[in-house]
Amino acid sequence: MLTAIGVPATAAAGKTLTVTTTVRNMGPAPAGAFTLRFYLSSDDVLDAGDVLLGSRTITSLAANTNRMDSTTVTIPAGTTVPAGYRVIAVVDALGQQDELNETNNTMASGPISLTAS
């Protein structure tokens, strides 16, 4: 499950952005490899209009543990500015893990004020 996501309050189109995430394996068994994906969204709901920014593969996560990572993604140069956006993170985005609860894998960041580069 995704327990936290953090981004800077401001960013620029065409520039990199560092996203911090905390993932927790609440299960009694270790998790094998899985993928986190990051999307740029104009709201806090993942939908077809959101733009894939990048991904990170986590090779394993021990039972009942947390893992914090930072991932650098690039905001597309053609993104409309000025505008407010959010980053939405999706853990196990490719459905690689069997889970008891599939509803806690998506989380949106706080708002990002996007400017021209």
Give the SSE layout.
Layout: E1 2-6, E2 10-12, E3 16-25, E4 34-41, E5 51-58, E6 65-74, E7 83-91, E8 106-108, E9 112-115
Parallel strand pairs: 2-9
Antiparallel strand pairs: 1-3, 3-6, 4-5, 4-7, 7-8, 7-9
Features:
mainly beta, 0% helix, 3-stranded antiparallel β-sheet, Immunoglobulin-like, 6-stranded mixed β-sheet, 117 residues
Give an overview in words.
0% of the residues lie in helices and 51% in strands. It is mostly beta strands. The protein has one domain: Immunoglobulin-like. Strands 2, 4, 5, 7, 8 and 9 form a six-stranded mixed β-sheet that branches. A three-stranded antiparallel β-sheet has the order 1-3-6, with no helix packed on it. It is elongated and about 45 Å long. 26% of the residues are buried. The mean pLDDT is 90.
Are there runs of 5+ residues with pLDDT below 50, and where? none
Residues in β-strands, percent: over 45%
- The pLDDT mean sits at 90
Q: What is the CATH level 1 assignment?
A: Mainly Beta
Calculate the terminal CA-CA distance, rounded to whole Å: 34 Å
- Strand count, sense and closure of the main sheet? 6 strands, mixed
Fold-level CATH name: Immunoglobulin-like
Using the alpha-carbon principal axes, give the shape: elongated
Derived from helix and strand composition plus strand pairing, the structural class reads mainly beta
Instruction: Give Rg in angstroms.
Output: 14 Å
Number of structural units classed as domains: 1
How many helices? The count is 0
Instruction: Summarize the amount of helix as a percent range.
Output: under 10%
What is the CATH-assigned architecture?
Sandwich
The count of strands amounts to: 9
CATH superfamily: Immunoglobulins
- Element-level helix/strand string: EEEEEEEEE
